[in-house]
Amino acid sequence: MDTAVADLLIEGLWLMAIGLGIVFTFLVTLVGLLVLMSKAVARWGPEETLPATTAGVHAVAPPKDDARLIAVIGAAIQAHRRRHRP
Amino acid sequence: MDTAVADLLIEGLWLMAIGLGIVFTFLVTLVGLLVLMSKAVARWGPEETLPATTAGVHAVAPPKDDARLIAVIGAAIQAHRRRHRP
Amino acid sequence: MDTAVADLLIEGLWLMAIGLGIVFTFLVTLVGLLVLMSKAVARWGPEETLPATTAGVHAVAPPKDDARLIAVIGAAIQAHRRRHRP
Amino acid sequence: MEALLTLWQSTGIANVTWRELLMLLVGGGLIYLAIAKRFEPLLLLPIGFGALLSNIPVAGMAGPDGMLGMIYHFGVETGIFPLLIFLGVGALTDFSALIARPSTLILGAAAQFGIFATLLGALALNFLPGFDFSLADAAAIGIIGGADGPTAIFLASRLAPDLLGAIAVAAYSYMALVPIIQPPIMRALTTKAERNVVMEQLRPVSRLERILFPLVVLCLCALLLPAAAPLIGMLTLGNLLRESGVVERLSRAAQNEIINVVTILLGLAIGSKLSGELFLTTQTLGILVLGAVAFSIGTAAGVIMGKIMCRLTGGKVNPLIGAAGVSAVPMAARVVNKVGLEENHHNFLLMHAMGPNVAGVIGSAVAAGVLLALVGS
Amino acid sequence: MEALLTLWQSTGIANVTWRELLMLLVGGGLIYLAIAKRFEPLLLLPIGFGALLSNIPVAGMAGPDGMLGMIYHFGVETGIFPLLIFLGVGALTDFSALIARPSTLILGAAAQFGIFATLLGALALNFLPGFDFSLADAAAIGIIGGADGPTAIFLASRLAPDLLGAIAVAAYSYMALVPIIQPPIMRALTTKAERNVVMEQLRPVSRLERILFPLVVLCLCALLLPAAAPLIGMLTLGNLLRESGVVERLSRAAQNEIINVVTILLGLAIGSKLSGELFLTTQTLGILVLGAVAFSIGTAAGVIMGKIMCRLTGGKVNPLIGAAGVSAVPMAARVVNKVGLEENHHNFLLMHAMGPNVAGVIGSAVAAGVLLALVGS
Amino acid sequence: MEALLTLWQSTGIANVTWRELLMLLVGGGLIYLAIAKRFEPLLLLPIGFGALLSNIPVAGMAGPDGMLGMIYHFGVETGIFPLLIFLGVGALTDFSALIARPSTLILGAAAQFGIFATLLGALALNFLPGFDFSLADAAAIGIIGGADGPTAIFLASRLAPDLLGAIAVAAYSYMALVPIIQPPIMRALTTKAERNVVMEQLRPVSRLERILFPLVVLCLCALLLPAAAPLIGMLTLGNLLRESGVVERLSRAAQNEIINVVTILLGLAIGSKLSGELFLTTQTLGILVLGAVAFSIGTAAGVIMGKIMCRLTGGKVNPLIGAAGVSAVPMAARVVNKVGLEENHHNFLLMHAMGPNVAGVIGSAVAAGVLLALVGS
Ligand code: NA
Ligand code: NA
Ligand code: NA
User: Where do transmembrane segments lie in this chain (chains A, B, C) (predicted)?
Assistant: First the structure.
């Protein structure tokens, strides 16, 4: 049985070599493509008018509702202030 | 082959005649039914107390939340004003 | 046929007896377990710091949004008051 | 000419049978009850519409290749839809009142008497011509007395799929009629003094108790009555999602997305069992009568057990709350509250009735398990 | 060494065919149109992505064991996905404008002329080499003229599954192109005076009318054209959920959860039919050309019927609103409004165009039913 | 009497085996960890509950006709559930940090070393008695080192379904333990100076870049590694829905409805693989040990690659961020931030660690594709 296991282990080593090889090939190629992509966008892409995000961790809920909330509150306070005006 | 296609075309013409016929029959009958329905509702239906909508294009979100929002804000401003009272 | 129905009825009576028996056994046992559970929680459970609910009927929507709403409104009013200060 | 004949023969008018016409009326009637009378609209409206769709002549929507037939096959034959509804019910239900006063479980048990009495009634109907209910049929009919929609659908789909349409319609219709069926029975069986009993306020229930509750119920079910495990399991899972406080996302999904979407599909699927051949029978008439009997007996049994508990506790339990033991959450509890207030304007029984009310849900799930274990196979 | 060869042979580069490369470009093109040009992005983006996925060499995602293939089998072959979308469309659509002025249904009927004319066109293409459309194929192609995505997908999945990809792409692309295709036709066929016609304000519509409307439509469909029952049934169910006012939860589920989730899955499933062998054919070219023809003829037929109605009513109907009869809700109605405003800055036709616009949805569902009844099976 | 005996024999107590009792404890333990310790509750709670349900004696809920068994068959055997979760993950993930500094992909690659080292470790365990892992088993165990739940479930369901329960439990448990497993390794392998490295602020990323990113990743996957197409395809589709900005509805559906509903069902389905026969084996013990090893080696490999990059860039990269390359988003990035702050109170590494962190997700999906291509079939 032990020789069978040893054979498996050798196969596993091959797998590791090839597997890690592909993972690195893939991701290094991706690095290259992303660099090219960013350069292409910088040269030919449209000018961004919106403020771009610097980064962002799993931003789940868009802050849309808050925006609406604040707008409505703003309006309410405006109205309130008008009524209070001496 | 061309005669086969011609036969198909004739079949297609039949299909068109019958098809458009049914579509028109269906929709004209529906016009009649809707007119009857509206008359029946006008005569026997309950008096509407709520303001009926005149029309409305794909009104997706009911403005319920805004109502709640405005109610809460109203309450907040009431409370605020009470505290401000000289 | 009537004897067959009578046999069925007798089977049904058995079913009723056994069935109600199990239902009561189950629920009475559950009463015991719940009493034990509550005693165990009272003795060994953590002290509750949050106000516990007394009861509650199908409370579907948690009032989270309102809380946020009120917080935002509070902040808005604070800001408003600051601006108003003489 | 021939083409027009073919065409005519594909219309509904040329093919409609009187059974289909009657069933279209039945579907319309259910929709009317749902919209105009607000009879459990969340289910009766889709069921009624499903009845319309499945009785459109020629279309065959309830058949094995029709949309309703496929939904039925996929969601009801497998039992998955009623179980997912039960998951949502668990996530929507607060068991605090029950935890605070576990003895109300006895009321929930008593009200299940309606189930078994109706089972007997269904078997007795076999003495009449036109009725031929098997034991499984009778068990499925009896569960109407459980006053719990998904439980009734789950059991009926297992024991008597052909009766599913009538049973579901009866169950939801009578649940909607609880405010009419129950009060006279409650008044007849109780004295003025009993209806006046003011109950002690419920103690607060800690978060840990609410988390342990579903697990305790599930363990007991596993040990005593594995046949009820699917129903009790989904109910307790939903409740644990709710009470654990760590999976708010999943709790909301169970309370909204899952239950809403499944309700539409389940209603349509039940409608596919509302075909003329299955529904327009004397058996359906029997089921409708038995359903009303089931609710009445369940209510009475609950109230009588309430009276017993009132005696045993020296008048600390208002017998009216026993009526809530049939489940029909939260309608039955509200009815108790209303009848209580009629007698004493300051005696709010709502919270006290919630205990037996949710106990009734567990009770009928247990009863369904018993019936599955003893009659199913 | 051998292992490396095996490995190389499992890469996409070693296996890619020119067809797959072209289809990846097609997929990319659809995504570009969806994002940069906002061409019906809700469907063209998932369809385009589905095209990418199903043309990845070796992966076989569109095959019977691939994810897209399974989604197609489960949701499109059964017809369930387009029907659920139609449920959502019903729940999102307000038919008030149509109820207030039922005569606009005639405009919705006229615009279906595009469907049948295109059917003839598809058959005529068989005179050219490289085309071999059966009657069923031609019917599925014709439905593009209905300007209604789910209807087109439903019919194509029944009559010509191999053409589904091309038909869906054509239908949604031209729906996005409505603002470009329609105005010149509308201007060419109408006089200045006709475009200037100001219409009477619509009368208010009561809640009861809005509740009865879906039921009336369904009954008529059941009696006259059972073959259209699945489509009309789901549309009217959705609308009844919306208008009944008693099942807000279910209405919201149909408008959001169901339609959103199904849209993603449906788009991917359609993408699975965008393989090189099925799409890169002269037939697809024919379908794309015919689709544009279909929209144009439908628009023209609607406008001409509008002119007829204008005459018959003594100038009370603005013929422009006939163009909205192709459906493409609400885009076509907006186009009508815009063309009307060009002529007269105070003549808002939007509400008046909504009638024929939603009539067009019913009209093309009816036409689909006709084609199913006459050509299907 | 006989009836009572039959009844007794249908109870759980009469039928429960010690394996089932132990598994009920395991299920309870998982629920405890989920609620009390907040160990990945979104999945461990449903998994734990699924373990309870599938080990209820007699009920057979994990069997082919049981609810859990059917959900497993429908959603996990087909691979659809983990892929839908990946769709949601894509829609929830912001890849900006990675786009701004693509070189961090190398860190995500290095951390996958843990996967392959564990694969070897699993094979080496075969020297011990009681272990008999095939190459496919070993590959499925190795993927635990990818620290990515849906990837692990997807691969295990393809390569070693019998080990799925243990693998999923190990994967999620260790993901929850990241804050305990990683810091000592990170501190041991880095010098004080290295931990103090302050990194340049990330450049802003344009919307166009964020839209092109998923398409670039998908194209590379199509050309190099089609076997990873399902995972990478769903991840990038989700991300494109998010970043395209034109399908807000679909993006929200992927982030909420789909992921929440599927999470509940997936957890239950995995629980169906937590039966005594499959779980209470020495192999499970081996898997749990190997899982911890996998995480440790992955972390170490990431940190070491970080040190290399630190050298090569002349000290512009803080090696700590290499630890985030194992994925476990966003926990691992937070751990990096915390360890960094311990050394220097003003050195916020969170944003810098997000690059390798999301790179780790892509890295382990790629590794899964490699394993599927080389071992699967
Ligand atoms: Na009950
Ligand atoms: Na149309
Ligand atoms: Na990873």
Answer: 12-36
| pLDDT one-digit tens code per residue, A16-43 | 999 999 999 999 999 999 999 999 999 9
Contact between C41 and D212 using a beta-carbon 8 Å cutoff: yes
Contact between D306 and D323 under an 8 Å Cβ cutoff? The reply is yes
Query: Which of D83, D240, D250 shows the shortest C-beta gap to F42?
Result: D250
- Among chain F residues, the shortest Cα distance to C11 is held by F3
Within-domain flag for A14: yes
The mean per-residue pLDDT over the stretch E282-286 comes to 91
In sequence order, which residues have a C-beta less than 8 Å from that of residue D342 and are 6 or more positions away?
Answer: D195
pLDDT tier, F45 (very low <50, low <70, confident <90, very high otherwise): very high
Of the candidates F68, F58, F56, F69, the residue with the CA atom closest to the CA atom of residue F20: F56
Three-class SS of residue A26?
helix
User: How close, in Å, is residue E308 to chain F by CA atoms?
Assistant: 40
Contact state of E216 with B33 under an 8 Å Cβ cutoff: yes
Contact list in D for residue C18 (CB cut-off 8 A) is 370, 374
**C75 within a domain of the structure (yes/no):** no
Q: pLDDT tens digit string along D77-103? A: 999 999 999 999 999 999 999 999 999
Among the residue ranges B31-40, D199-208, D303-312, F273-282, the one predicted with the least confidence is: F273-282
For residue D13, give how far its alpha carbon lies from the nearest alpha carbon of chain B (Å): 13
CB F95 within 8 A of CB A38: no
pLDDT in tens, E181-236: 999 999 999 999 999 999 999 999 999 999 999 999 999 999 999 999 999 999 99
- Interface partners of chain E (CB pairs < 8 Å, 3 or more) are A, B, D, F
Could you give the residue ranges of the DSSP H alpha helices within E55-163?
Answer: 67-71, 80-92, 96-100, 104-110, 113-125, 135-142, 149-159
The residues spanned by each domain of chain F are 18-54+65-376
Query: Is the CB of residue C12 less than 8 Å away from at least one CB of chain D?
Result: yes
ipTM surpassing 0.90, yes or no?
Answer: no
Print the domain residue range for B26: 1-46
Q: Which residue has the tokens 């599909």?
A: D265
DSSP one-letter string for D198-258: PPPPPPP--HHHHHHHHHHHHHHHHHH-GGGHHHHHHHHHHHHHHHHSS-HHHHHHIIIII
F333·A57 Cβ contact <8 A? yes
Task: Look up the pTM and report it.
Answer: 0.90
Q: How far apart are CA E223 and CA E212, in angstroms?
A: 17
pLDDT of residue D277: 83
pLDDT for E277 equals: 83
Task: Mark yes or no for CB contact B77/A76 under 8 Å.
Answer: yes
How far apart, in whole angstroms, are the C-alpha atoms of residue D165 and residue F267?
33
Separation between Cα atoms, residue E241 and residue E232, nearest integer Å: 14
Residue B54 belongs to a domain = no
Query: Nearest to residue A17, comparing CAs of F373, F113, E13?
Result: F113
D36–chain B Cβ distance below 8 A for any pair: no
Q: Which residues of F touch C22 (CB under 8 A)?
A: 7
CA distance F364 to F301: 14
pLDDT at E117 over 70: yes
Distance F325 CA to ligand 3 centre (A): 6
Rounded to whole angstroms, the Cα distance separating E338 from F59 reads 65
Enumerate the residues of chain D whose CB falls inside 8 A of the CB of residue C27. 105-106, 108-109, 359, 362-363, 366
Q: What is the pLDDT of residue C58?
A: 39
Angle, vertex CA E65, rays to CA E62 and CA E69, nearest 5: 35
Count the residues in chain C: 86
Distance CA B72, CA A36 (A): 52
Q: pLDDT of D228-261, one tens digit each?
A: 999 999 999 999 999 999 999 999 999 999 999 9
Give the number of domains in chain B. 1
